[in-house]
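Quick illustration for those who missed Monday's session on complexes.
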Amino acid sequence: MYPSDKPRLRLRTKLMLLTGLLIALVILLVVTLVSRSVRRSILAETQKRGVATAQLLGATVLNYLKFYYYQGIQQNAHIAKKENDLAYVIVYDKEGLTAAHTENDGLILRPAADPEALESINAKSALFREINVMRANSNRQEKVFDIAVPVYTKEAPGRWGTIRIGISPENMNQDLTAIRKQILQVGLIALVFGVLGTMILANRISTPISKLMTGSLRAAEGDLSHRIEINSGDELEGLAYSFNYMMDQIRRHQEERIKSEKMAAVGYMVNTIVHDCRTPITVIKGFASLLKDFQVSTEEGRQCLDFINFEVERMERMLEEILQFACDKKSPLTLEEHNLDDFIRECTVEIGALLRNTRINFTQDLQGNSSVKIDRDKLRRAILNIAANAKEALKGRGEFKLSTRFNQSHALIELYDSGGGIPESLQAKIFEPFFSHGKSGGFGLGMSITRKIVEDHSGKISLESEKGKGTTFTIQIPLSRPEGEARSMAHFS
Ligand SMILES: Nc1ncnc2c1ncn2[C@@H]1O[C@H](COP(=O)(O)OP(=O)(O)OP(=O)(O)O)[C@@H](O)[C@H]1O
Ligand SMILES: [Mg+2]
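Prediction with magnesium ion bound:
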């Protein structure tokens, strides 16, 4: 199936993998960007909340700071820690001594010593930092948002102390994890839908491609009748249409080539046959005229000899025609003006002879009293070819009717037989050379010669046929003087 034996990824799998990868990348990007911006806004919110909490505590313990009432400060520090769910609360007095420490009572009344404490008591305005602290109950270090706020009053200048609070980032992390989870859930749904959608789309693309592949392989194996049905309404449908059109064209060219090869072979064969038939015909003709010279005694005998001569000459002309047809040369017409009905009456003699000894009822309806320029021999042959086919179709019994009429521009000759009819699928083919159907020994030339003769007269031949109801062939030959013209000429004469 494939040009190489290597296992290949199918188009569908490739598309699905690509889409999955792209969606996963997009989700990752969204999670990162959203997490970053959410973290930033939670930090700002935490800072605002922390500063407000510290300021409130500062205002609450201001008087205690003024009077060094450490117990009150410590009580308020514990309450603030509990109420605001803080990691710790530390209060320094204006001398820098630790007035309250919710996590380590041992530090109370000791001066602030660690760098963060010193930085806090020296800060002129609110301070916000992320620092590592040691948890009291475990030996683990933990990240904490540390906020330090100086305590001032409007009435007296100078600073009364510093409030430090620690906010654990746990809540922020929980919020972030929840948001990430939600984004991932939405992303997962998008991934499933994306991959499913790609699968459907890939199927829509790969199924027609598989069909085209199968069609090409079948065409390569010689099956040119294979058709591809794609109704996607897009370029793929166009491609299938072009493929089918290409197959039709290839098939048509192939048929034409076969036909012309067949024609060339038959042409050669006909050439040989005609050449071989000419000699005995010439001999028969010679002996017939010799017999005439021998003074045949009865009138009947002389008529028979004339008949032999006449038919032999016709046969000669016919052989010449076949030869010309097979060699695809245009045989020149000998056109003479005749009355259509008079000419048809001549033909009926031969048709009568053709239908002798059958139970075919031959009728005529001649209303074609008009003038036509025709080659009598050739047009008679065309009519006899149709009559011969009708005789074969009637299988010995039935109706055969020959009628004539004319319209403003054409004389019409209609030949009807009540035979089995011609199936619709064959109607276009019967005028093709070497097409014969349903009989043994048919050469398949009769109707193509007939059409050629009619067309050489600038005429047309058509047929109407229905299975079981018979066949009508209509020959149209241009009037030598169309109706209007004929009437005006009659008027002047
Ligand atoms: N009147 C008809 N009724 C039914 N079938 C007909 C009729 N006329 C022609 N056909 C069909 O058309 C085919 C072609 O006719 P055509 O005269 O060209 O060839 P043919 O009769 O088979 O051979 P031949 O060269 O000996 O005439 C016939 O084989 C026949 O199947
Ligand atoms: Mg025939």
